[in-house]
Amino acid sequence: MPEYDVAIVGGGPGGYVAAIRAAQLGMTAVLVEKERVGGLCLNWGCIPSKSLLWNAEVVNLVRDAATYGISFDNLRLDMGAAIDRSRGVVDQMVKGVEFLLAKNGVRTVQGEAAFASPRQLRVRGLDEPIDAKAVIIATGARPRQLPGLAPDGEVIFGSREALSLRERPEKVVIIGGGPIGVEFAQFWRAYGVDVTILELLDHLLPLEDEEVSLQLERAYRKQGIKFVTGAQVAGAEARNGRATVRFTAKGAEQELDADRVLIGIGFEANVEALALDRIGVQVERGYVKTGPELQTTAPGVYAIGDVTGLLNLAHVASAQGVSVVERLAGQTPPALQYQHMPRATYSQPEVGSAGLTERQAREAGYEVKVGKFPVRANGRAKAINQNDGLIKIVSDAATGETLGIHMVGPMVTELLTEASLAMTLEATPRELGWTVAAHPTLGETVKEAALAVAGEAIHFWTE
After folding, report:
1. Active-site residue 439, yes or no?
2. Set 315, 340, 406, 439: catalytic member
3. Domains of the chain as residue ranges with CATH
4. Which of 108, 85, 116, 117 has the alpha carbon at shortest distance from 38?
5. What is the pLDDT of residues 216-247, one digit of tens each?
6. Between the CA of residue 237 and those of 84, 170, 254, what are the distances in Å?
7. What are 56-71's pLDDT values in tens digits?
């Protein structure tokens, strides 16, 4: 009976990265995945949605062709072709992950796993058990079922069904103004869909810095994307191929009719099939409870990614996977700083952030200094005709520490690595201001916002 150094349950961005890193460190690894490797992110999340959003950006450029001296007749848009292209991208990426797992000597087993003991797994359809010195739970999460919002998969649905919708609906209501909601709104609006977002809290992207959210809301109004904030959704009903959404906003009960309703809020961990009670793994609020090094309450069993509920982002899951296997191999990786993890939303304009918002910093007791730089003052932004946005740096006035970097504008998600590196290396705004940025680039906006903390921005005047 073979014994592996590590067995990983779930082949998403946490699981497959952990498996590959384990193999690199000379460990024997087995990966169990019940569907396709890549998990929700690669198959039904990050990758296909970003493919569709690129289509939306191309469509918007084509619609604005006259600005660039280009004219044509008989524009035709095929949303189904965009869906087909996104699925093709997914297939290529899945094959790439399968190739990497095989080349690194990771055994991949397809099936649903459950614990027989803390170090033994049983996989449905597999005769022999899988024994390992350590097991990593990486089963991810799925959209949560909400009272009064039961999806039927056709009229009322979640993001997975939305990513397969080939026919353009006339009118869509999106419940939830977080990243899922605003991204699908962007895609559908590009194809001429009448879109309304209903968000419970005061702003779209309510977890972002308030000024960033306000900038995005301004841009969405210009694009004709409607939204209602402070909207308490009571329920949605499907009848005869259409839906009615009931909600309360500003003290008044209201209704919206739509061809489709997207539920873009809430996730819950995939833990039911694992038989965690059998081995003493504790679950809190539906998520696997972990300690500082992602150890569960069962010896030798770890959990990473969305199943932990710590921060539901693919790159966080990958970082957690690497951290766990490096510790298993006897290394001492640095502790993960969740507060510094970059967060990206692929709207138009894009949103990217790392660290504390201004409000969070003040509530934490910091004496705050802020530097801001408008995207419209940047030469590259002008050149590509994308002028909406703001770069904002939040710092501690007492120590000069950079507490947060918040961005909304063209391609700012590509600036997140710079922001994340600055937070990791504890760069101060003064040091960011010393950085020489190539001209003309969008990266100059970060340098200018850093200079603005001390009132020294070069390319923008404030009274």
Report:
1. yes
2. 439
3. 3-143+268-328 (3.50.50.60), 156-264 (3.50.50.60), 349-452 (3.30.390.30)
4. 108
5. 999 999 999 999 999 999 999 999 999 999 99
6. 29, 18, 14
7. 999 999 999 999 999 9
